[in-house]
């Protein structure tokens, strides 16, 4: 007869005692009021379970930090590429008689900031408060984006930060073009019934054929964003606009609920040479007055 794996009587007795003790404690806990149960639970979590809960929390935080570091590295690389692309676009063209006298436009800069969604109006997913740079004395609106894509715009100062709107706000508009520069248009938010907000490209020529997956980027025309910030990818065509303009549904590059660390666009100032030339340029002559008696002849 083999006794391998058979516990001694004393060990089996201890197992029975611990099992019975656990049953008694569970019965006592079940009979307590909800307030007393909460107190017992807090005491157990703060004593016997504390080392295990601490290890679990540290492991979870480590995983989040590693994931966030990877995301920040990707955003840094994308932002570096964006600034290099903008610097190339801002350089003066070489063909022309006065190209050598035209100074290169500065590429501007960015400042880090942190987004707090929903404040100061809790429950409004289209608004945010930005902390980080001081917006007092700044010219608004100010573009906000990450290395991945466009986030929104700061409209007014709020304390030492700013208050703004995500791209999902009904009043948001941004001028875009396809990455190859072939088609341009205006993008606004689109809210489907019961679905997440997306973007809608309007104003594309009717003969334009934009393939699904095409990246749309900012034009930089209004000076709110630098050229080349990713806005989203074309997801599907929409119904034509007024019968002669095409519209496309766009999947946004950045979701507001996933945003925290962002960049604020510091618009570059024009060089002194350009400002001087602009100020000294002769004004256009005023148009001659029109004789109202001759109108319609």
> Strands of the largest sheet, in order across it?
1-2-5-4-3-12
CATH topology of the domain at 111-268: Thrombin, subunit H
Compute the separation of the termini in Å: 126 Å
**Biggest β-sheet: count, sense, barrel?**
6 strands, antiparallel, barrel
Instruction: List low-pLDDT spans.
Output: 87-105, 273-297
Radius of gyration: 31 Å
Instruction: Count all strands and give the number.
Output: 12
Helical residue percent?
25-40%
Instruction: Let me know the average pLDDT.
Output: 75
| H and E string | HHHEEEEEEEEEEEEH
Report the β-strand fraction as a percent range.
25-35%
Structural overview:
It is a single chain. The chain is of the alpha+beta class and 297 residues long. Among the domains are: 39 residues; 158 residues, Rod shape-determining protein MreC, domain 2 (Thrombin, subunit H, Beta Barrel), CATH 2.40.10.350. It is 29% helix and 27% strand. The protein has four helices and twelve strands. It has a six-stranded antiparallel β-barrel. Strands 6-7-8-11-10-9 form a six-stranded antiparallel beta barrel. β7 and β8 form a beta hairpin.
Q: Which descriptors would you attach to this protein?
A:
297 residues, 6-stranded antiparallel beta barrel, 12 strands, Thrombin, subunit H, disordered C terminus, alpha+beta
Furnish the topology, listing elements before pairings:
Layout (H helix, E strand, L loop, with lengths): L8 H23 L2 H13 L3 H41 L18 E9 L9 E5 L10 E4 L4 E9 L2 E6 L7 E5 L5 E8 L5 E9 L9 E4 L11 E8 L7 E8 L8 E6 L5 H9 L17
Antiparallel strand pairs: 1-2, 1-12, 2-5, 3-4, 3-12, 4-5, 6-7, 6-9, 7-8, 8-11, 9-10, 10-11
């Amino acid at each position: 007869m083999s006794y391998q794996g058979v516990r001694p009587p004393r060990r089996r007795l201890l197992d029975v005692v611990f099992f019975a003790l656990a049953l008694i404690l569970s019965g006592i806990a079940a009979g307590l009021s909800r307030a007393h149960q909460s107190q017992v639970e807090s005491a157990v979590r703060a004593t016997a379970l504390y080392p295990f809960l601490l290890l679990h929390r540290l492991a979870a935080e480590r995983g989040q930090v590693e994931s966030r570091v990877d995301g920040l590295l990707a955003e840094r690389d994308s932002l570096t590429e964006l600034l290099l692309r903008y610097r190339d676009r801002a350089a003066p063209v070489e063909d022309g008689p006065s190209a050598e006298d035209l100074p290169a436009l500065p590429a501007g800069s960015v400042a880090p900031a942190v987004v707090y969604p929903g404040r100061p109006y809790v429950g409004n997913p289209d608004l945010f408060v930005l902390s980080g740079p001081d917006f007092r004395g700044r010219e608004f609106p100010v573009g906000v984006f990450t290395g991945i894509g466009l986030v929104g715009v700061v409209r007014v100062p709020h304390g030492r930060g700013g208050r703004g709107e995500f791209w999902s706000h009904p009043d948001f508009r941004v001028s875009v073009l396809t990455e190859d520069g072939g088609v341009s248009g205006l993008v606004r938010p689109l809210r489907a019934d019961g679905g997440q907000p997306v973007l809608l490209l309007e104003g594309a020529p009717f003969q334009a054929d934009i393939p699904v997956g095409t990246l749309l980027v900012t034009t930089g025309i209004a000076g709110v964003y630098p050229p080349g910030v990713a806005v989203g990818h074309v997801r599907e065509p929409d119904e034509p606009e007024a019968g002669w303009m095409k519209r496309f549904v766009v999947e946004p590059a950045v979701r507001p609920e996933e945003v925290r660390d962002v960049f604020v666009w510091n618009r570059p100032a024009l060089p002194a040479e350009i400002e001087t030339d602009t100020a000294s340029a002769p004004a256009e002559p005023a148009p001659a007055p029109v004789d109202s008696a001759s109108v319609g002849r």
